[in-house]
């Protein structure tokens, strides 16, 4: 009986150790799976956070771009009003005369066609008298200033406000404090 009891206890002990080993293995596997899942969820959470931040930054950039365009358009509307005021002054006549003389000097006696803006038609006769050059009223409205063409050399001399304003508009960038564009 004692031998059978000892053998039974050995079998039970052996079975208990086997079950404990299976339990420990199962615990270790469960911990590994949990750690892997935690790592995967952490990576996923970071990716979602980064995507959300990138989307928010993109939305901010778009909004900033819209606001800057609105402000830029407003600034250039004000500039256009200032140009229109300038075009009513004696300084504008002097500016046109200076541009005509520079164009004539650049042409150096070659055939030159000087175009005036249609809005300046009332200044044509005065400027022709003061410059000694024949002026042509352009069919295209270029806001103000003059354009001259030397056909023999395919040269356009452009002192028009339209071209100058377009160049300034295209290059205009708001600059913030601390060098922030």
Task: Give a brief rundown of this model.
The chain is an alpha+beta fold and 181 residues long. Helix content is 67%, strand content 10%.
Task: Provide the fold topology.
Blueprint: H1 2-86, H2 90-107, E1 113-116, H3 124-131, E2 135-137, E3 145-150, E4 155-160, H4 161-171
Parallel strand pairs: 1-2
Antiparallel strand pairs: 1-3, 3-4
Can you walk through the features of this model?
The chain has 181 residues and is α+β, with helices and mostly antiparallel strands. It has 2 domains: 1-86; 91-171, ATP synthase, E subunit, C-terminal (hypothetical protein PF0899 fold, 2-Layer Sandwich), CATH 3.30.2320.30. 67% of the residues lie in helices and 10% in strands. The protein has 4 helices and 4 strands, in the order ααβαβββα. It has helices at 2-86, 90-107, 124-131, 161-171; strands spanning 113-116, 135-137, 145-150, 155-160. A 4-stranded mixed sheet has the order 2-1-3-4. Helix 3 links the parallel strand 1 (113-116) and strand 2. The protein is rod-shaped. The termini are far apart. The model has no long low-confidence stretch (mean pLDDT 94). This is ATPase. GO terms for molecular function: proton-transporting ATPase activity, rotational mechanism. Keywords: Coiled coil, Ion transport, Transport. Belongs to the V-ATPase E subunit family. Residues 31-73 form a coiled coil.
């Amino acid at each position: 009986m004692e031998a059978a009891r000892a053998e039974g206890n050995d079998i039970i002990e052996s079975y208990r150790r086997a079950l404990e080993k299976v339990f420990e293995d199962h615990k270790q596997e469960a911990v590994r799976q949990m750690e892997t899942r935690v790592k995967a969820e952490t990576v996923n959470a970071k990716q979602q956070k980064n995507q959300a931040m990138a989307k928010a930054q993109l939305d901010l950039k778009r909004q900033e771009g819209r606001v800057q365009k609105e402000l830029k358009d407003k600034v250039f509307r004000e500039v256009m009003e200032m140009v229109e005021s300038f075009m009513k002054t004696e300084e504008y006549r002097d500016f046109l005369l200076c541009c005509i003389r520079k164009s004539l000097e650049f042409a150096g006696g070659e055939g030159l066609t000087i175009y005036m803006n249609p809005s300046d038609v009332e200044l044509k006769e005065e400027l022709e008298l003061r410059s000694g050059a024949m002026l042509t009223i352009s069919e295209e409205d270029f806001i103000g200033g003059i354009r001259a063409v030397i056909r023999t050399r395919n040269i356009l001399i452009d002192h028009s406000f339209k071209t100058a304003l377009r160049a300034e508009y295209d290059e205009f960038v708001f600059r913030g404090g601390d060098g922030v564009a």
